[in-house]
Design a protein that fits this description.
Layout lengths: L2 E3 L6 E4 L5 H12 L4 E5 L5 H12 L3 E6 L2 E5 L12 E2 L4 H11 L5 E5 L10 H9 L3 E6 L3 E7 L7 E3 L5 H13 L3 E5 L7 H8 L4 E3 L5 E4 L9 E2 L4 H12 L5 E8 L6 H8 L3 E8 L6 E7 L7 E2 L11 H10 L2 E5 L12 H11 L3 E5 L2 E6 L7 E2 L5 H11 L6 E3 L12 H9 L15 E2 L3
Parallel strand pairs: 2-15, 3-14, 6-7, 10-11, 18-19, 22-23
Antiparallel strand pairs: 1-23, 3-5, 4-5, 7-9, 8-9, 11-13, 12-13, 15-17, 16-17, 16-24, 19-21, 20-21
Helix pairs in contact: 1-2, 1-3, 1-6, 2-3, 3-5, 4-5, 7-11, 9-10, 9-11
Bound molecules: shikimate-3-phosphate.
The site of shikimate-3-phosphate has 10 residues, from helix 5.
């Protein structure tokens, strides 16, 4: 499917975005291990999260869908059933890596497979610690790639220092730790999103966090079933927030958004680039901050994105690179080598597409240098089957002369069903906006 985009008029909108992808995966998995029925609303009904739902069903967990974006998970404590067939994780690395942790604690054998992209992604990062905990895992692909054959059970806790910053790896170890004897401690090289730790605590699982950021989980605990509301996904909102930020006079308010500080550094980058960004936390009841973000656009200026903030905004780098092309001066992205092993090599994909639109980009081994501002011109662009590349370049198309066509744009369904309708609404606003007051007070997003 082609997605055609043309230059946007001035953006002035109030929106919500679909539920957070990372939180939806975790809510379904932890609820499945709980001792009762958990109703999860705001659940992201997108391809990636539905892979996790289907996988859990294959493992004997009843999951009802009483309404769109609501699932009711019937937790079976830690008792999963051996699946009759292999489990297809599709394009979802979160499904494969988190399930690897879960299945490492089950006594039966499972085979996890994925699509062509997922079958190329590194799995050694989860295999090594899970083997150390006692699981038997064989990677059938070359260089420790999927399919993964896992036979688990009889796990013991470990102390593990992760050699890379990855929330998926941390989460796989914590889930295995929940099913293991004794305690498991994971130390991160740099902080990553902490949804798993928060969700476990929300379900009354005992975990601790040291001052240096090491997370410890005490094994063999059964999560207490609870209901949960998934907030909107800041990584999805980032497309629109960036579009409004890069448009002098642009204005956007996004409601019911997850504002966990391990996800908000993208807002700080937009502030550094010159946009006015304010956030108001309205609720932290479920241990995940949620609230409102408001952006007022400006002529952006280049910035440097590097170091410890990179793992906290990795998913937003494609659209931030587009902002870099629109900004005055140079934008440098460094220490982002992980982008090369995402759904596609995102460094190469961003550089290819920005150049095709007329921007000046120098590709680095771990990032890129973008010399802006570029008068972007519309082009036919490959999505490389990567949802974040497709959406980032749809946003670029809003700033280009002439039509931009994103090829194979159906991959957007992986994380953002309804993106095309939201794009249409942004470009042709139909409804009068009715603004409900914001609870709490706005603060400027920290740089
Ligand atoms: C995710 C973690 C990140 C992120 C991905 C979702 C998660 O991946 O890029 O989109 O839900 O844990 P890594 O753990 O590979 O950094």
């Amino acid at each position: 499917m082609d997605l055609r985009v043309r230059r946007a008029p001035r953006i002035d909108a109030e929106i919500t975005v679909p539920g957070d992808k990372s939180i939806s995966h975790r809510a379904a998995i932890i609820a499945a291990l709980s001792n009762g029925v958990c109703r999860i609303d705001g659940f992201l009904n997108a391809d990636d999260c539905m892979r996790t739902v289907e996988a859990l069903r294959t493992l004997g967990i009843r999951i009802d869908e009483p309404e769109p974006n609501t699932i009711c998970v019937h937790g079976k404590k830690h008792v999963l059933m051996p699946p009759e067939d292999e489990i297809d994780c599709g394009n979802s690395a979160t499904t494969m890596r988190l399930l690897a942790g879960l299945l490492a604690g089950q006594k039966f054998e499972t085979r996890l497979v994925g699509d062509a992209s997922l079958s190329k992604r590194p799995m050694e990062r989860v295999i090594t610690p899970l083997r150390e905990m006692g699981a038997d895992i064989v990677a059938e692909g070359p260089d420790n790639t999927a399919p993964l054959r896992i036979r688990g059970g009889n796990l013991h806790g470990i102390k593990y220092e992760m050699p890379l910053a990855s929330a998926q790896v941390k989460s796989a170890i914590l889930l295995a730790g929940l099913l293991a004897k004794g305690k498991t401690t994971v130390t991160e090289l740099a902080a990553t999103r902490d949804h798993t730790e928060r969700m476990l605590r929300y379900f009354f699982v005992r975990t601790t966090r040291s001052e240096k950021g090491a997370v410890t989980i005490f094994g063999e605990q059964v999560p207490e079933s609870r209901d949960f509301h998934v907030p909107g996904d800041l990584s999805s909102a980032a497309y629109w927030l960036t579009a409004a930020a890069a448009q002098p006079g642009g204005h956007l308010l996004v409601r019911d958004l997850g504002l966990n500080t391990t996800r908000t550094p993208v807002l700080g980058v937009l502030v550094r680039m010159g946009a006015q960004v304010r956030e108001a936390v309205e609720d932290v009841d479920q241990l995940e901050a949620r609230g409102v973000v408001e952006v007022n656009g400006a002529l952006l200026k280049g910035t440097v994105i590097q170091g410890k903030e990179v793992p906290l905004l990795l998913d937003e780098l494609p659209v931030l690179a587009v902002a870099g092309a629109l900004a005055h001066g140079t934008t440098i992205i460094k220490h982002a080598q992980e982008l090369r092993v995402k759904e596609t090599d995102r460094i190469a994909a961003i550089a290819h597409n920005l150049r095709a639109m007329g921007a000046q980009v120098i590709e680095l081994s771990d990032g890129m240098e973008i010399h802006g501002p570029a008068p972007l011109r519309g082009a036919r662009l490959p999505s490389f089957g990567d949802h974040r590349i497709a959406m980032a370049f749809a946003i670029a198309g809003l700033f280009a002369d002439g039509d931009t066509v994103i090829q194979d744009a159906e991959c957007i369904e992986i994380s953002y069903p309804g993106f095309e309708a939201a794009l249409d609404e942004m470009v042709n606003p139909k409804r009068a906006q009715t603004s409900t007051p914001v609870i709490g007070s706005f603060t400027s997003a920290p740089e």
